[in-house]
Fold:
Amino acid sequence: MQVVHTYGLSAAHWLALLRIGLGLWWLESWRHKDKKGWLQRGTGIEWAKGVATGHRWPVVGRCFDRVVAPRPKPMAYVVVFAELALGLGLTVGLLTPVALVAGLLLNLLYLVLMIHDWAEQGQNLMMALISLVALLAMSWQTWSLDAAFHLFGA
Structure:
């Protein structure tokens, strides 16, 4: 087994910090979201509909029309509270593998929806990469409720 040398903390602690940072990033995404607009006025889903309708890949618009458009209110709640759940789960390390996979999928969904926006692509690619690294490195082994409760093996 190769010994990993790091500065200050162990590799497991650095990975835990990466996971916690990703959780805080999701919490910030949730915090700055106009929740009243999303949940009461439907502004988020209307915005997404405009993006999906004019998308360069027609399949995105068709999928939006089949999955999201018939149920805009529940889908708004899914988006808003998924970001909150991901942020909390990753920050405290509860059900971390589930949160990392869900976050990876959500970031890939956002990436496909916003494929024309370079700023969004960078954020979603970075978050997806962190999710993948944190998942494959089993970042829930340190500083997490998962480790405290022995929920997932090493």
Observations:
- The two ends are 15 Å apart (CA to CA).
- The chain has eight helices and no strands.
- Residues 27-149 form one domain.
- The mean pLDDT is 94.
